Amino acid sequence: MRLRIGVVGGGLVAQAMHLHFLAHLSSLFELVAVADPSATVRDALQRRYSLEATYEDHHGLLEGTKLDAVVICSPAQTHAHVMLDALEHGLHVFVEKPMCITLADADRIIESQGGTGKIVQVGYMKRFDRAWERMLERLPDSAESLRYISVVVHDPEFIPYFGPGDIVRGSDIPAEILESGREQMRVQVREAAGADSPAVITAFEGAFLGSLVHDVNLVHGLLERLGEPLPAEVIGGDWWNEGQAVTGAVRLSNGARWDSAWIQLLDVYEYRESVSFFFAEEVHSLTFPSPWLKQSPTLYEVSRAQDRARVTERFESYEESFARELAHFHDCIMNGTECRTPPQQARLDMDVLTQMFLKAGG
After folding, report:
1. How far apart are alpha carbons 97 and 239 in whole angstroms?
2. What stretch of H or E contains 327?
3. Per-residue three-class SS string for 91-122
4. Largest CA distance in the chain
5. Could you please report the per-residue DSSP string of 214-233?
6. Angle of helix 343-359 relative to helix 213-225, nearest 10 degrees?
7. What is the distance between the alpha carbons of residues 129 and 299, in angstroms, rounded to a whole number?
8. Sequential pLDDT tens for the chain (362 residues)
9. What is the C-alpha to C-alpha distance for residues 140 and 288, in angstroms, rounded to an integer?
10. Is the distance from CB of 58 to CB of 82 less than 8 angstroms?
């Protein structure tokens, strides 16, 4: 059965990924409506996807169109409100990361979802990368011999990957909507992080919750597979360069350390993301391409000693994780498959990232 689906927010990730794959997966989804405050964006997307309707906000979409589910790609400070309204309307929800900004909102979402029985899936596409799945299968049976975890990301954002006009941007959003969104962001970041300066917002919402969250989530999945108690102890965190560089450190139950770093390098047109698990007798690693590059494979590599030599196994797949996570969303709704990235998991990630930020002293 095809699910009638609407999208809230027609910005970068919606245009670059979710709308494209929802339309591509036409045997699973009927893409019927988009809500966005920009008339320019609404008109462009209506023409591109032959939508039944477009709306200025999510209220119009929920009231005006018969839907089975929504995909939420609006700014992070709107996520909790839109999710709770969608659940109240009896819809299944796919929400881009971060699920929300405050732990209190995360608790409200979890409570609301539990009362409806609807699927809530958070957009952690890396959990659907076949290289991540391969690493999950090939890890040792426990974390006993795990010595260190390293996560390093440097990110030029989106400019190298899109030409002029590839992403439709609207300069016609009413000023009151923009200011309301900025105030929502300030209030929520202040509640979660204790401050709301522009640099704090960039560091906490943009870098920790918006970017490093992907790697924290995928590492949590691997640690869970190893039987590691979660959450592990957060022992450090830092941010600098107006929030465009962040780090966090975690101590595992066997004493091993997990360090993560995310650095925004807008003037270096190169994306690098590596996650490595160092065990006493083998090393497992993932090397990711920019998420904006479709069908660009992640490399999984495991190396160990054998016959007085180093033996390496490599695995790559060209299947697109953004498509696979949407197909999983459909499977959860239609077949009762257990959701791989539920809101409880997102709350765990948010808690750890919030502690990392607070360890830096704000």
Report:
1. 20
2. helix 321-335
3. CEEEEECCCCCCHHHHHHHHHHHHHHCCCEEE
4. 68
5. HHHHHHHHHHHHTT--SSPE
6. 120
7. 10
8. 999 999 999 999 999 999 999 999 999 999 999 999 999 999 999 999 999 999 999 999 999 999 999 999 999 999 999 999 999 999 999 999 999 999 999 999 999 999 999 999 999 999 999 999 999 999 999 999 999 999 999 999 989 999 988 999 999 999 999 999 999 999 999 999 999 999 999 999 999 999 999 999 999 999 999 999 999 999 999 999 999 999 999 999 999 999 999 999 999 999 999 999 999 999 999 999 999 999 999 999 999 988 898 999 999 999 999 999 999 999 999 999 999 999 999 999 999 999 999 999 74
9. 22
10. yes
Q: Is residue 328 within 8 Å of residue 121, measured between CB atoms? A: yes
Q: State the helix-helix crossing angle for 175-193 and 343-359, rounded to 10 degrees.
A: 70
Residue 124, classed as helix, strand or coil, is coil
CA distance 86 to 92: 7
**86 within 8 A of 111, measured Cβ to Cβ:** no
**For residue 342, cis peptide bond before it (omega within 30 degrees of 0):** no
Strands (E), the chain: 3-8, 29-35, 53-55, 69-72, 92-96, 120-123, 146-155, 233-240, 245-251, 257-264, 272-279, 282-288, 299-306, 309-316
